[in-house]
Amino acid sequence: MERIGAIIKKYRTAKKLTQEQLGKQMFVSKQAVSKWENDAAIPDLETLRRICTVLEIPSDVILQRVTTDLCVATAGNQTVQKEQGNMKKQTQIEAWRDYKFGMFIHYGIYSLIGRINEWVMFHEPIDIDDYAEESKKFTAERFDANYYADLAKRAGMKYMVLTTRHHDGFCLFDSKHSHRDFTVMNTPAQRDLVREYTDACRAAGLGVGLYYSPMDWRFEGYFFPLMYRKSASAMREQCHKQVRELMENYGKIDVLWYDGGEDGWFAHGINLNKWEPSRANTEVNYKQHPPIPEFWGEYELDAMVRERQPQIVINNRLGMQRCGDYVTPERVVGGFNIKEPWETCDTLSETWGWTPNRKILPLEKIVRLLIDVITGGGNLLLNISPRGDGSLDPAHEARLLEMGEWTSKYADAIYGTRGGPFKNAKGVGGFTCKDNRIFCFIEEKERTQLRIPLLDAKVQKVRCLSGEEILSTHVSDGILTVTLTSGAANGIASVTEITLDRDVATHYADFDHAAFDAWN
Known about the structure:
Layout: H1 4-14, H2 19-26, H3 30-37, H4 45-55, H5 59-63, H6 66-75, H7 77-99, E1 101-105, H8 109-113, H9 120-123, H10 128-134, H11 145-154, E2 159-165, H12 193-204, E3 207-212, H13 220-223, H14 229-249, E4 255-258, E5 261-262, H15 298-308, E6 313-314, E7 318-319, E8 343-347, H16 363-375, E9 379-384, H17 394-409, H18 411-414, E10 418-419, E11 429-434, E12 437-442, E13 449-453, E14 459-464, E15 470-476, E16 479-484, E17 494-500, H19 504-507
Parallel strand pairs: 1-2, 1-9, 2-3, 3-4, 4-6, 5-7, 8-9
Antiparallel strand pairs: 10-11, 11-12, 12-17, 13-16, 14-17, 15-16
Helix pairs in contact: 2-3, 11-12, 11-17, 14-15
């Protein structure tokens, strides 16, 4: 039986296509096609379906080989390489999980415009040439990276992520590969803000994170890649070259934060079926079935990044989301998950990019958001929105400093901890743990008791860190019950520390979280 590579080569040759020509139609490199044909790499199922379409291969001819070939590959080098990679990633991801709380910064031309949000170019919409004209007003005269790094530290944040380039294509760094040279260096600012930012982060002892959006609204090929192949290929090339610049030119990078790079975010031209209700049900779910799988070259890009930044941690918003180290629920708190790394991103204001007269989150809501996230096993990345000149609204600064007062008081219960070992309840309370200590956060003011199963562990000490008095502690049937004088005495949350006679993570490693509900 012919192998997949031989089948691809036979049908490509029959259509009189070179490897390079097939690669262009598949939006991959000539080298990728060569690897397929030599069985050095096996395309995934979505890519194989597209190969069948492009080369007019009957699906049963090639797909019958898939199961066998994929099993062989999985048993061989791919599995070994994946296991080795996972071992290398483990240390870095654990250090990232220790951060717990970070600062997100959205800043760009949209901050200067100040209408709608950071998607103003798309939503109004604004002509790409008119949008580019706005860059002539971009001075960034009050953007002070050292100020933002210091503010992050004072707020209790341990890492930062800055938008180096959003979906509008405007770069805050000195890119040599920007379409139409749309960079900060060609504005009145004439400063590499990413350079200033990375230097400031390191000087402040913070983790350095870079946001990058592979997609770019200025390319027709983003919307209609099959109609505008050269445009789509140019956008992909821009992405790879700019990510390489960021990985090579700015020192050690701790976090790479992709956005809009999933294959399902691609080819979003107008679907004319929407104008005919009877045909609307023919629409395809792009997230599950992207029109051009493997467009961004997820594995290729990931390998390039990790070769240049071996210690980096990367989110999962690229390609088919197979290479990322953690997941990123947006503006929602992830579910209780202490096995896999995750991060909730949310914004202090109502929008990610600056727009005036927007409400900001009250302190109580931010604190409880952080509690719900860390007791569920995640990190919280909280966004701020500098104004067009680079300055921050004083109310935003004041709120972050209030947050810093709270985080500094309970630092031991926040940083370097892990969620659990017992399931949390959003808006009610939850637990973190570290070494031989369990920290219990109670958000409900009327709740005065907390309960945990000891599983034969002995309690060495119980103390309340938030000011409430402990009325009693007792153990019955292996359950420790602690009764406080009141719930959240400080108006936000009570925090109680329980010290056991053994390491918590080890002791509860096999604990069934569904078997015990601490909140009912």
